[in-house]
Structures are given as C-alpha cells and as structure tokens.
Design brief:
Helix content: 40-55%
Distance between the termini: 26 Å
Oligomer: single chain
Radius of gyration: 21 Å
Strand content: 5-15%
Strand order of the largest sheet: 7-6-5-8-9-10
Largest sheet: 6 strands, parallel
Number of strands: 10
Structural class: alpha/beta
C-alpha cells in the first residue's frame, strides 16, 4: 500500500474505484488514503467468500462499497461488524438488453430442440449432472435434442472436465447430439448472441460446491431472459435474487433426474410463455445495465 501510494502520487486524481474485495483493493485503498484521496470498491462473490481481505476496514473507510447480489451483500454486512452501514450498498449488475432479441419459443417434440447452457468448465456449473440429464432425455424419452455448451476452459482441470462431458455422450453413442463451440476455447460475444437467439431453452445446473466459490446471479441467465428463452435453473449462489417458480423452472442441485422431470414439465406447460414474459419484466426492472450504471454514477458524484 505504501509503495502504490508513492507510485500513484505522480498522478492527479481525486478518487479511486477498485473492483473486487480481495487483496488488491486493500492495497489500493491504503494507497488512496496515504494520498489523502477517497476510494470505493465493488464486490461480487468469490472475492468476498473466499478471497475477502480487510473488508471491515474497507467498508468503514470507503466512500461506498457496492455488492451485486444479496448473498454476498449479507456476507459483507457480517464481515463489517454485523450491522448495516450506510455506505454498503446492494448495487445489482446487468447486461445490455438491446443486444438480445426477445422472441417466444414454440416446441414440437417431433422436431429437434436446441438446449443451451453457458459457463466455464468448472464443477460449480453442474455440467456433469446436466449432461447426464440430456443423455437420459434422448435415450429414455426419445427427445430429439441438440445440446450446446458455450464454455471456456483455461486449466488442465477444466479441460479434463470438458473431456469427461464428451465421454458421457460418446459412451451413450450420442456424441453427434453435443456441440461445444470453440471446443473449450470460448467464442466471440457476437456469436454467443446468435447462439442464444437460435436456441429453444436454457438450462443452468449450478452447484454450491462448499468451498465458498459461489455464483451471484450469472449474466448468462440474464442473457437467456432477455432472449425469451424458457429457463430451467438451480438456485445456487444468489440466483434466487431473480429466479423462482413463477418465472422459471427450479431444479435441485446435483440432481439429473429432477432436470429430466422439469424438462418434461416445461415442454407441456401452457403457461411457459407467461413465465418468460414475467421473467423479462423482472430482469428489466432489476438488472438493466444502463439503470444500474446510473446508480453507480450517482454514488461517485455524491
């Protein structure tokens, strides 16, 4: 903090905003204070539950701290003394709604159904039970499914998980039903938007793995909502901030059979379009990127 304070002294600034409540924001907050300047921070999930650093100090001394989901926000209250503080603010994030084209989906069970999921190849994304559920729906229920995983792998462990998913489909002789654009190397956002547009439903099987590495409300679920995709999801992390049985289909974590059951329910549900419309309204009210950015802007200008 002293070293960065010295380095930052060559710049002319009034305020520093630091993302994540881990060590880096502790260092830079000290640097700001040593220069007689104000600072603020924004927190998310892992940086609070697993990598949080001097959170009480930062909340007490900052101009403000925003946290983008309820579960992490409540944890911050606990870590900053167990009482609400006026400068600790629940500031939801969002995605740019205008990039996605909302349209309702009609299902014909005699035709191919494009099932989409989106997430890094890590345990907490629940991709193994989800893959097992897709295989069951094809093998035992005769659904014609094309299963697309938009995901990124960057470590040996993540590529091993990617191979494990491939082997589930190969063993079932259903590998031609699996699509992984980029083969774990990721794809450009423009292509991601196109994939959402041509998909029929979105399934997110996130899991609380017990390490503190929790989801907030994943952007991929907001993207699905803005695209009009019916959503089947667990309530891992802070997903219940937005998703519930009135606007989506909730499944148990690590439960491939429950995914199968809710998939069948969703296909036959006459209220499916109403759920998607309700979800669109609620995501627009709470997770509009422009509106939530203005909240952050107002905090800077106070």
């Amino acid at each position: 903090g002293v070293l960065y304070g010295y380095k930052l002294n060559i710049f002319s600034f009034d305020h520093i905003h630091i993302h994540f409540l881990s060590d880096i924001s502790t260092i830079i907050s000290i640097a700001a204070l040593l220069n007689g300047k104000t600072f603020s921070c924004s927190g998310h999930a892992r940086d609070i539950f697993m990598e949080g650093s001097s959170i009480n100090f930062k909340v007490r001394n900052s101009k403000f701290v925003t946290v983008c989901n309820t579960r992490a926000y409540l944890k911050c209250i606990e870590l900053s003394g167990g009482k609400g503080r006026r400068n600790l603010i629940l500031g939801l994030h969002g995605v740019a709604a205008n990039k996605y084209k909302y349209h309702s989906r009609k299902f014909n069970i005699s035709q191919e159904i494009n099932v989409l999921t989106d997430g890094r190849f890590t345990e907490k994304k629940g991709l193994i039970p989800l893959s097992e559920a897709i295989v069951t729906l094809i093998s035992d229920y005769d659904f014609k499914i094309k299963f697309t995983i938009v995901g990124l792998a960057v470590s040996d462990e993540q590529f091993a998980l990617l191979d494990q998913i491939k082997n589930i489909f190969k063993k079932a002789k259903l590998y031609d039903h699996l699509s992984i654009p980029g083969n774990g190397k990721g794809v450009q956002q423009e292509e991601v938007i196109e994939i959402y547009d041509r998909s029929d439903l979105f399934i997110y099987a996130g899991v609380d793995v017990g390490t503190g590495d929790l989801d907030g409300v994943p952007n991929r679920l907001l993207q699905a909502a803005y695209s009009g995709l019916p959503v089947i999801t667990t309530l891992s992390g802070s997903i219940s901030d937005l998703f519930n049985e009135s606007n989506s289909y909730i499944v148990n974590q690590n439960d491939s059979l429950d995914i199968v059951e809710k998939f069948n329910k969703m296909i036959l549900d006459k209220s499916r379009d109403k759920k998607s419309e309700k979800l669109l309204k609620e995501v627009s009210d709470q997770f509009d990127l422009e509106k939530n950015t203005k909240l952050l802007e107002s905090l800077f200008l106070k």
